[in-house]
Amino acid sequence: MQQLGQWPSTNGHTDTLVVTTFHNPPFTLVDPARPNHVTGYLADLMQVLAYAVGVSVVYDTDNAPGAFGLRREDGTFTGLVGKLVNKTAHVGLAPMIWSLRRQEAVDFMGKVPIAAGRRSFLVPGRPLVSMDNIGALLTPFDASVWICLVCGMLLATFLLRVTVTLTRPRSEEDDQTFGIVSSLLHIHACIVQQGWSSTPSRASSRVVTLAARVLGILIYVEYTAMLISMLTVVKTGPEVSSMEEFVARSDWSLLIRSGVAYTNDWKMSEEASLRILYERIQTGQQIKTLTPATVEQMFDPKTVTSFNRIQAFFKFGSRACDLFSLPLRSTSSPTRLSQPETGRLEPVFLVMRKHMKLKPDIDRAMQNMYQTGVIDGLFNRWFPNVTNEACSSSVEVRPLEVDDLIGILSIVPAGVVISLGVLCLEYLTAYLVKGTGTHRRRAKRDIAKHNQHQMMGFLSPAPDTDLSER
């Protein structure tokens, strides 16, 4: 084995350590054909440690996968911790999370972390956009955009009817053609870029239809572009967005190892979802056991898995990028494994029997291996997918919202303002034209009366004329 740094050798000891473990790749890999032959990250680390301390190692692999060790109601322990407490083994070769109960039962080797990770709840992603139902046609726009479009159509319909009714002189043909229903159909035709059989005769009414048609052109362009993007760019995401939503689903199951100690912390957790999961684990309701034979069930529909992120990458490689980490509470968007996860990193340790005579030597060797980078070197060797490989970034297409289309959606309100302004100008023009026409008719009447009076004066005889004197 290649030496990854300097470590002391205290070959004065000839003890043999019984190391109990189980199949937990890539930390430990147990070959069923060779039960006492163990490989993996922790096996390599144990080999270096045994050389440094000067001891030999024999393995006890007669353990169920995931049997880290839980404390029973009577105070006894199960799993690897139980064998250390019962003094049938010296070292528990598995990544153990620190807890006060474990600290009272076993010693943590050198108090040196061998890895760090997060307790993740992983759920497989699924395509979020498909054209397999009629509702998918609405996906390019957010619901608020569709609401604004409907409101804009109704506003334009109302204004079209009002302008047709109030314009002076009133067009009887427009009044009959553009009723309230036909006005709505006319505006709809403008929005969806269809033709129409008639056009309003007044400018204010035409401004309304022009605004609707311009809005329709721009919306049509944006909708088509977004629809193409959603069909060509695959966006995936979890069907549930948080553990709160998961526990509310009666048809979903939790896939988890048996005997994991951190489930005891869920009993008194501040998170209601974790308390519910603890109760389900006790009763076995909606719980599936995670084993090497059932690990592929992580990708089953309606399944959430309590699993270590780094082990998911080791087991599945880039396929682990299809697994999403669920937060405990609802957030705006789920986080992919390729992105930083929320929550704190939790270190894991190796444990050994209490009051071993080799404890000072083991602690000293572990601390030296940590300080010289031996532990990091072994970790990077066994976890290349975690340290070197990242999920390829994917472009996510989101529906357009009102803020994205505020300039386009403002066309109808602008058309309303312009149309009302034109309507006022039409009223003013009609008033001026009517006033001018009245003045002209009055002047003509005065002239006609004057001429008539002159003509009557010319034809009538003078009152003082005496015909006999003529």
Percent range of helical residues? 40-55%
The end-to-end distance, rounded to whole angstroms, is 162 Å
Quote the beta fraction: 5-15%
Structural class: alpha/beta
Whole-number count of domains: 3
Helical segment tally?
16
Spans of at least 5 consecutive residues with low confidence = 1-14, 332-343
Q: Biggest sheet: strands, sense, closure?
A: 6 strands, mixed
Rg from Cα: 43 Å
Q: What is the mean predicted local confidence, pLDDT? A: 77
Give a structural overview.
There is one protein chain. The protein has 470 residues and is an alpha/beta fold. It is built from 16 helices and 16 strands. It has helices at 41-53, 79-85, 100-105, 143-166, 172-177, 180-191, 203-232, 243-247, 263-266, 272-283, 309-316, 359-371, 374-382, 384-388, 406-409, 411-459, and strands spanning 16-20, 29-31, 34-39, 56-60, 91-97, 107-108, 115-117, 119-124, 126-127, 236-237, 253-256, 287-289, 303-308, 323-325, 335-336, 346-352. Strands 1, 4, 5, 6, 7 and 16 form a 6-stranded mixed sheet that branches. A 6-stranded mixed sheet has the order 12-11-13-8-14-15. Strand 2 (29-31) and strand 3 (34-39) form a beta hairpin. Residues 1-14 and 332-343 have low confidence and may be disordered.
Keywords:
14% strand, 470 residues, D-Maltodextrin-Binding Protein, domain 2, 3 domains, 16 strands
